[in-house]
């Protein structure tokens, strides 16, 4: 949240309200009061704190992890990795040496960008393509892990340092419960990278947060086949009652053991507006059709044929074929009948005016 004007640190036009604390204060914070927790170069994390962070993410929170000089791979791999707060184990700290050039991101403004970076599509000189990284932590992302790569390093540079043929990830994101974990392999300040000095830095941080922070009502907007999962933080004065668009009641079950949800339903198969009664209030629940079924964009015949399994099919346009049009051209008696009807109406009007009045 940079100041709106120079010399006025208390005034900002940002929609983010950060609260800066030390890692020693983290254990005394009620994490459910916040949308995101950002760890910037925190050296070591105790297991109890890691448990709190994992629960916070599972209940819908977001964690952003930045690396730094104090970070130790042994501690992070022992506390964060088992709780799935890392995309993979930290393996090696890579640093440029001597005349070795710095590492660059593989950002291409006209290429295939991650949704977090869509705001930079077509941007001229945002700085993401020229930002230099002098040190970063190499992370080994398992091949079967559901981890999205937001940015990688350019192939052949960091990859050669680690002996791998694939580029190292610079920024990743993955789901954990109802929340998300964003991992940045370098520092949040200028200790290891020139990125904070680039024009795109603040916008990039905002997009990482906007793309990963839950709005708080995502559980109320579902798609056909999803289950309704009532968050554990939802206050209820009675057992919840879920009704479908036809006001038929749907069974809700409580999960076994400790969970991030209070109640959950089975897969919801009917689209429409559902209602959830929690005792004091009634909450609307929307179940939508899948986005691919609601896509009304026109497609060409090639796409249609492929969707039908590449079957042999002939496509006709919006006009009759020439032979049929020629046969039908002489069979249009509409104007003839219309002329006769108009003539009869005119005659009737004349007769009514001529003989339809009483005269003395």
Can you count the beta strands?
16
Rg, Cα atoms, Å: 32 Å
The helix count comes to 7
Query: Which stretches are low in confidence, meaning pLDDT under 50 for 5 or more residues running?
Result: 158-163
- Most strands sheet: 5 strands, mixed
Query: Widest sheet: strand order?
Result: 1-2-9-8-7
Helix content: 10-25%
Mean pLDDT: 86
Molecular shape:
elongated
Decide which structural class fits the backbone.
Answer: alpha+beta
Strand content: 15-25%
Structure description:
The protein has 360 residues and is α+β, with helices and mostly antiparallel strands. It contains seven helices and 16 strands. A five-stranded mixed beta sheet has the order 1-2-9-8-7, with helices on both faces. The longest helix has 22 residues, at 334-355. The termini are far apart.
List keywords for this structure.
single chain; 360 residues; alpha+beta; five-stranded mixed β-sheet; elongated
Helix and strand arrangement:
Elements: E1 36-40, H1 47-58, E2 62-66, H2 73-79, E3 90-95, E4 103-104, E5 132-133, E6 135-139, E7 147-152, H3 158-162, E8 169-176, E9 179-184, H4 201-212, E10 221-223, E11 227-231, E12 241-243, E13 249-250, E14 261-267, E15 272-277, E16 282-288, H5 301-307, H6 322-329, H7 334-355
Parallel strand pairs: 1-2, 2-9, 10-16
Antiparallel strand pairs: 3-6, 4-5, 7-8, 8-9, 11-14, 12-13, 12-15, 15-16
Task: Give a brief description.
This protein is an alpha+beta fold. The protein contains seven helices and 16 strands.
């Amino acid at each position: 949240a940079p100041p709106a004007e120079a010399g006025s640190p208390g005034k900002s036009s940002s929609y983010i309200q950060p609260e800066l604390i030390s890692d020693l204060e983290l254990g005394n914070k009620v994490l459910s009061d916040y949308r995101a927790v950002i760890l910037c170069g925190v050296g070591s994390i105790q297991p109890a704190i890691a448990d709190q962070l994992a629960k916070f993410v599972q209940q819908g929170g977001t964690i952003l992890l930045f690396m730094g000089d104090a970070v130790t791979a042994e501690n992070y791999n022992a506390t964060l990795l088992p709780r799935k707060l890392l995309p993979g184990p930290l393996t090696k700290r890579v640093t440029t040496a001597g005349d070795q050039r710095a590492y660059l991101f593989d950002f291409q403004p006209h290429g295939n960008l991650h949704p977090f970076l869509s705001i930079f599509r077509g941007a001229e000189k945002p700085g993401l393509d020229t930002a230099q990284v002098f040190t970063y932590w190499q992370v080994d992302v398992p091949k079967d892990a559901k981890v999205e790569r937001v940015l990688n390093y350019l192939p052949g540079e960091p990859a050669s340092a680690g002996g791998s043929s694939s580029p190292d990830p610079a920024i990743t994101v993955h789901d954990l419960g109802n929340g998300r974990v964003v991992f940045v392999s370098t520092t949040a300040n200028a200790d290891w990278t020139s990125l904070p000095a680039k024009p795109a830095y603040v916008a990039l941080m905002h997009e990482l947060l906007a793309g990963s922070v839950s709005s708080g009502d995502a559980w109320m907007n579902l798609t056909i086949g999803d289950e309704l999962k009532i968050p554990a933080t939802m206050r209820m004065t009675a057992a919840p009652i879920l009704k479908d668009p036809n006001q038929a009641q749907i069974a809700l079950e409580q999960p076994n053991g400790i969970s991030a949800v209070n109640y959950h339903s089975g897969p919801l198969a009917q689209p429409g507006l559902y209602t959830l009664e929690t005792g004091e209030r009634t909450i609307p629940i929307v179940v939508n059709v899948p986005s691919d079924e609601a896509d009304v964009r026109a497609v060409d015949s090639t796409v249609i044929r492929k969707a039908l399994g590449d079957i042999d099919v002939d496509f006709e346009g919006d006009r009759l074929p020439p032979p049929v049009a020629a046969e039908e051209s002489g069979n249009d008696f509409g104007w003839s009948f219309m002329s006769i009807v108009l003539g009869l109406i005119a005659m009737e009007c004349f007769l009514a005016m001529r003989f339809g009045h009483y005269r003395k």
